[in-house]
Structures are given as structure tokens and as C-alpha cells.
Batch of 2 targets.
Target 1
Amino acid sequence: MKKKLIITAHDFGYFDSINRGIIYSLKHKNNIITELSLLANTPGSLEAAKFSRSTKISVSLNTNFTSQKPLSRGVPSLVGKDGNFLKVDTKTWDFSVIDRFNEKDVTRELDAQWDWFTENVGRKPSAILSKKNEYGDPKILMPVVSKAKKEGVPIRVPVWMWKENYGAQSYVEQEGVKSTQNIFLGLKEWKGKFGYDLIEDIDQLIADIKTKEGVSELLVFPGFVDKELMDKSTLNWQRGQFLQVLDNNEVISKIKDNFELISFRDL
Amino acid sequence: MMKVKRATKKLVIVADDFGLAKEINEGILRACREGFVTEFSLMLKSPSTQHAVDIIKKCKLRDVGIHLLLVGFDDIKRMFRRSDYVELFKNKNYQEIQKLAELELRLFEKLIGKKPTHIIPQYGIHGNLKLLDFLLGYAKKYDIPMRLPRTTLGEKFGENYAAEIMLRRSGVRTTKYLFGHVLGSNLLRIEREFIDELARVKGGESAEVLTHPGYFDEEVLKLTSLNYERARDLAMCLDKKFEEKILNLGYHLVSFSQI
């Protein structure tokens, strides 16, 4: 039996260029994306929600507690003086600002992002995901798990730094919330630390996914690149690579031949 | 002897599994007396727990921590395996896990006459939040340091950020790093790897090296999957040159109570 694989387009709604890149990918004859991960609080969110409303594809909520502004008011532990979320450093993976978060504020912001989604997309998210997988931290994980439980939706395996995180993973299982078991990043040139080049490393990636038990998720990062993206996201030119991968019939066939492609709502 | 430079780093060297078998107990005692082991953790409800307790009393050993098992050999007449722990955490709720831990901590006090000087759960099972939740409260209340919750119930020698960040936020004392090379037959390579890892620790920081020293006989072979490795670790703990290399990296060898 083929292993199950979810292929998620990350950061839908971040910027216009990313929205256009993701929509281009979905319309491509070689499309392999099965899940969109929609951000609620970013410049392109409304446009992305509009598109999501018009399609039947599985769309999850990409919760975000560390970029741009919160949607809720009265969450002082999450924000700085400028009203933006407190800054983290993904270069050194310094997320120590989360020490200052309190769970009540996290819950309030999570609810606001969830409500924004249902209102603008017109249906429930297929899952609760996370922008930088901040919910590998128990302070965010616990509110996320209680929300997922209440709403009956799955979440992504709560890795940290995209690596194993036993305490969080066993917690999700013990609480009876469904989740994927593994995650792979379809991008190599990201801080040089994680992930696979979908063209050069495709055979290795397929072999590695096959060694894992349970459902895996491959996170991809489609996007066109304009001045706004270049100036505002540290992950910029790299997003263009996926659009080129789509034209590589060999890579696409290998993925389709080796896995049963599913989405979060199939969990 | 080479000159020791600025010793600003702290290193705890712990011998695990004291109480598991007589030959292990004897090996650990030697590793403490003649080697550089600074502390050991006592296994309760195990085949040679009483033998270990007698040694502790006779030799007036002070730094004795608990190697927390939740379910011991005496309970089920065999060692509790990793898969047993996975099932235990699946089937028991927070209160039931807490009860097991409380009983064991109470038994420790009854046998030793005081609270443990550290808490080191078997296989890093305190990485599971059902146990960690209770242990953090206990350790905080009595100011008892705890090993970093690297858990080996998952895939590897466990990345476990969730448990680690909870431990750090609680204020319970722990080391910044935990190093261990449990398997393997190449002692020289293992010593080299320890030295490489220890060299990366900065001044003012602390680390723990976990070891399993012990002699090795038929009882040990039958009881545990770690067998000749214990004799290997004993040899390492008695290796004066290795100890000198560690000291030359700027380490104080300390017990958990000094971190």
C-alpha cells in the first residue's frame, strides 16, 4: 500500500505575490498541492480567503503568533509597543519571546484567527496548522489542542525547529487529537538548515518519507517574487523554485507514483 | 600534570542504574571512589536495590538521586520496556501517573532517610507531560535538580523542546546540556566524541554526562540489554587521561546540588 502524503502550500495570504504563485500552481497541469495553509492576519489574507471560498480544495488555518499584527485586541503579552507581534529570530531559532506569552492571550488570538477564517472562507478550517510551528511550544500547543478538540479538526505534528518533539507529540496523541506523524520541507535553501531540494534530492526525499510510519506532510513554498516580498520576507527568491518544479515531469511523476496524495480533511 | 585553565564550566557525571544488579552496584561504587563519577541514581523496586541501599549506608554516600521507574522489576518480575511506557502513558491519566511517582518518591525517602539529590527518570520518561507536570511541582517545592528531559521513547535520543522549555520556565535546576553515548564498542571514539561535545560548552555553562558503569556477569546479561557497555563505561570512568582532558577544558566536576 502506498504511504499517504499531504502536500501543503505554505503561507497562502502572506503577500499578493505568494497568492498569485499558489493559484498558478493549482491551475498547473502538474499540480500536486492538496492543501492550502491560509494566514488570517497578513496583507494578502482577504484575497486568499476569497479564492478559498470559490474552490473546494482543503484549506487549513495557518495560525500565526509571531508575524505582523494580531487580529484581536487586548492581548498585551503577545505584542510590542508598536502593536505588532513580538519578534522572533528564525536565523538562530530564538523564540524566547514566547516566555512572555500568557495562555489566555494566545487563546483569544487563536479564536480571532479561527473566526476570521470561518467568516471569510465560509467554512471551517480543515486543520489548525502554524506558520513557524510555534505550537511546538506548550504555551501555544495547549490552547491549540483544546481548540482542535472542541472543533473536531486535526493539527500538524507539533515538531520544534522542524525536528522531533516528543513531549508535544505524545501530548497531542494522549488528548485524542488527530495529527500527521511526520513533516518534510520541500525547500533546501532556507537558512541552509532544513529541507530537501525537490529536484536534486527527490529520490532521497521519497526514500526518507517511506521509512516513516503514519501520514507525512510535505510543505512547499510556491510564490512569485516581487519587490514587496523581497523587502518583507526573509524567505523570498526561494519561493520561486517550486513553480519550476511543476514543469519537471519526472519529479512530479515520482511523487504521484510513490504516494497516495491526501489532504488534512482526509485524516 | 598539565596546567588546568580557568575552570568556569560545571560538569555532573552521573552513573545510572544503581540497584539494578550486584555487579552493577559494585562497578558504580568503584567508579565513584576511584573514577570521576560525581553522583549516582538509585533504582527502586529492582533486584539489587537493598544491596545498593546497604552500600549507601555503609559507605556514607551523600549524593544519591532517584532513577525514577514508575513501574519497577518487583512489580512485574521483569524490566519495564520502552513499549510498556508508551502503553502506560496511553492508558493512565495524569492523576494515576502522579500517584505512581509519588509512591516511588516516598519509598525512596523511606529507604534512604531523605529526599533524592536529583531526579532522573528512566528513558527520559519525564519528557511526557503527564509525568513532567507533577515532577516539576515536586522538584520546585523541594528544590531538587532534574535531568534534561531527552526522551528515548520517540525515534532517537530525543529532541524534546516542549518538555525542555517547560522545565526551564519552571525554574527547576537542570544542566544546560546532556551528553550520552550509550551504545557502541569503540571506547576511544566515544571518549573523543565526548571531548568534542564538551569543548563546545561555553564558560559559565553546565553539562551532564550520563554513564552506565558496572561489572558484567550472567545476571546483568539476562536483566538488561545494556551489558558489556557497562564495563566499557566503567573503564572510561577510571581513565585518568580522559578525566585530565575534561579538566583541561575548564570544567569543575560537581554534583547536581552544586549547579
Note: The longest helix of chain A spans residues 103-121.
Target 2
Amino acid sequence: MSTPSQTVGPFLSIGLPWADGPTVVPEGTPGAIRIVGTVFDGAGQPVPDALIETWQADPDGHFDHPDDPSGPLRKEFRAFGRCPTDDDGNYWILTLLPGAIPGQAPHIDVSVFARGLLHRVVTRIYFADDPSDPVLSSVDPGRRRTLIAQPADDGYRFDIRLQGDNETVFFDV
Amino acid sequence: MYLRDAPGTHPPLDSPGYKSTKLRHPLQRPVLLPQKLTEITGPLLGEGRLGANDNDLTAQHAGEPQGQRIIVHGRLLDGNGRPVPNSLVEIWQANAGGRYNHVRDRWPSPVDPNFDGVGRTLTDAEGRYTFTTIKPGAYPWQNHDNAWRPAHIHFSVFGRSFTQRLVTQMYFPDDPLFDQDPIFNSVPDPKARARMISSFDWSRTVPNWALAYSFDIVLRGRDATPFEQEVDDE
């Protein structure tokens, strides 16, 4: 009998952000990529009171968790990122590209929290449209591109549209 | 595999009574994601995230904050009744007058220079957590005519997997503001709603010091695996 979810409300930024939240790896780490994006609402307006969290495998496809018996972990790789959106709805994460996991293309799991979201919404960042990935291939081809990060300066762009035209694909986990 | 919660446990994202959901809830149905390694693992955040006095919101400044001092404690459990040990619990809240220490909070009740309203702790080996804080005040907001939020403390917990991540709000017993609050009432099942209300806990009050409330948080449970079945049979 689970405890219900509630919204983070408008003042999440006093409680949830960490100074080092966006840096999954320290600045200057060789091979680090910056993922940037903007969260938009159904009117196309940026959402300034949202929070993005990311969870991913390391470049060898390993998770920092006892339920992944696959192997040793990288040092200085937290696997988890957290960034509030700024006044223009922008977030960023500095990380390493995740490796492939057996049977799945490289991806990052994303949670979005915001004022007006009574429960987080979950999506995935992919880096290429890989038809062999079972999750990607379960998504309507017309909407699949909302899950693919676009190459950008020193990294990738991944915008999140909560509602309406080009609405991001969200998952029921 | 983590079990899905019963219908009515969580609020629908489209909850018209809470106006901010209008432009922020997805219109498309979510795509079913079979739980894979990414979802059954998750961040196990520990000691490195805590500073001194992070679990005592009344001791983070030179002076003491205004208001009623309270102990808030409870257990972090999974749906199988097992404690979740060594797990990060984060809270944030308004001060005794219902004012958040946030630049966008314009409610004309003063900021308390001795109260940030932010706390963190780790659950112990039995999944227990404890905070010392101030009972937050109710405050008005613009959702509907004469709208007031019941007093609440925001809670953020991780559990042991991406699927168990939960952000909720803890309420106080017998709050007369429940009936008009669309956020509290967004949870369809009244029994689930009641699980967000803390209990007054006389046994944990501290004489001449603090009142106490208890609040257990229950995360999604796991399917019994063959291994666990064997243990159960012993």
C-alpha cells in the first residue's frame, strides 16, 4: 500500500538541487559530454520550476548497484544527475556516454518533476534511432524522434515537451 | 520486478482542480516500459551527501527559529514491509508562518532568518529516519478563491531502484483545510490519501522541548523471486 505521489510545488529549488547535482562526472573529465535541454509546457512556454534527474550505466554498460553483478565501476562517476531548470526552462548534465547493456541500445533514464506535475514523468534519452532496441521499437515511429538527443556543441540537446505538439514520449515504469 | 501500485494510489496528472496541471500534463498515454536493468537499479546515495545539522532544521543558524518545535520520524519501507536502510531522505517546508525561504514566495508573512526549511538524513539499518524541525504554517495560494494549502512537509525518497523514486507531501492530522485542497484531494483513493497524513506521536514527544509526529513512507514492493520463495518456505 504505497504512499501517494504529490507535486514538488513551486519552491522545489530550496530543497532538491545540489551544488554538484548536474555533474555526474567532474568538470574536465576526459570524454565528458554536456547534455542540455529546455522543458516546455503545452503552450510552448519554458517551465522554470522543474527538476530533471538522470540515471544511467557507465561507458562499459555497468550500473552502480548491487542488482547489477556485471562488473567493476568507474571512479568519479555518480551515474545519477540532478538539475533544476533555470528561469528560461533550461537544464544541463555533464556525464559520460552510457555503454550498451545486453539487449538494449545506450540510453539514460530521465525523471521530470515540476510544479503542476502531481507525479514525476519518465522518459529516456537515446543517442541514435536503433530499431533493435526493444523499448525504442515499441514506440510509434512518428514519435520516436522525441527520444533521440540531437548533437550540439560539446554534447547533445534533449528538449522535453510535457504536452501538445511533438509531446515527448513518456513511459509507464 | 517492482509491482505496480493499485489504481487510485497516485493522482492523475490531469487534475483540473489543481490549475497548474492544465498545460503540464501529457495528453498521450504513457508507453509501457518493461522494467529492465536501468529501472531495477537506481542511485544509492549515502553519507557523502549529508552535512552537520542537516537533520535538525532548528539548529542550522546561530539563533533558533520561531514556531512549534516538532520531531518528525518514521520508517522507509517497501511494499513487502521490508525496511529500506541507508537511504537518502530529503525534506523542505515553509516556516511557522507558512512562508518559504524562496525569492518567488510573495505571501506577506515574514521570512525567518533562522530557518531555511531544508533537511536531509539517511535511514538507519531498520529504515528509520528522524528530523527535528518547526511545524510549518498553512499559506494562501492563487489556485482558486480563498485557496489555502494545508500545512505540509515535502519529502523526497529514492528507495533502491529507479522505479521506487517518490516525492510526496506529509500532512498533519485533522487539518480543517483538507476539504478545499485540490493537491491533497488529487489522490483518488481516500485510503491512499490518508497515508499522507502523519500521526501525533505522544511516545516521541520530548518533555519541555518538542511535540512529535510519525510518518511512514511505503514504496513499491517487489515480486517474490524464486530465491525469496525458498527463504519463505524455511
Note: The domain at 12-161 of chain A is CATH 2.60.130.10 (Protocatechuate 3,4-Dioxygenase, subunit A).
